[in-house]
Amino acid sequence: MYAASRIGILLATLLGGCAAPLFDETHNGRSVRVDAGRVFTIALPEAGSPPPQVRGDAVRLLEVRRDDGGGRDLFVFRADRPGESTIGISGATGETVPPYVLNVRVWELVDRRLRPHPLFLHGRCFGASTSCRRGR
Hints:
Elements: H1 2-15, E1 22-23, E2 31-35, E3 39-45, E4 53-55, E5 59-67, E6 72-79, E7 83-89, E8 100-107, H2 118-121, H3 124-128
Parallel strand pairs: 1-3, 2-8
Antiparallel strand pairs: 3-6, 4-7, 5-6, 7-8
């Protein structure tokens, strides 16, 4: 029951508006962008793979768990700092599961409140009217 509730919470989080990025076998060999501070998951077919190897210090492995209901291995990572890391997950020994490689570019998260609103940049105060300059 406990595992089912954890899976339900994970699915609700993934399907919600603030879902953490989820990557799978279709992303093998690709480069992806993740904001610094975000947690993301790689879900692969269950293979009993050894722990992933992470090259670079931008990404950190948090947890490896098995989704018994879906038959997938879930690798949970955190994007710690801006930079680039490569995640390598080898297939199970003697199996037909190919190795998985994901290049992760971690970008600095910018607070959107610090950016001026687009209408302000193109509005009255920037050339369309002189009333702003006169304080009107």
